[in-house]
Design a protein that fits this description.
The protein has 77 residues and is α+β, with helices and mostly antiparallel strands. 36% of the residues lie in helices and 12% in strands. It has helices spanning 2-11, 24-29, 64-75, and strands spanning 43-46, 52-56. 0% of the residues are buried. The mean pLDDT is 87.
């Protein structure tokens, strides 16, 4: 969790980042890639009511932020 805090601080990220050290949420969401507990890189876009509205699987960094922003803007328009 400390690595999340440091990453957010260094990157200027304001919203809280989620940490799941026991892997319970990752297991429930089906994003555990292997038995060692490593999660697949996945982004869930959740609306204000807590409903998952969009899932990005097999995330690749280049272009990802723009794609997420586009989905969020569409949700809010």
């Amino acid at each position: 969790m400390e690595s999340h805090r440091e990453f957010a601080r260094a990157s200027g990220i304001v919203p809280p980042l989620l940490a799941d050290p026991e892997g319970r949420l990752c297991a429930a969401l089906g994003v555990l890639a292997d038995p060692t507990g490593n999660a697949k890189r996945t982004t869930f876009v959740v609306d204000r009511d807590g409903t998952v509205r969009y899932v990005f699987e097999a995330v690749k960094v280049p272009g990802h932020a723009a794609a997420v922003l586009e989905v969020v803007r569409e949700m809010n328009s």
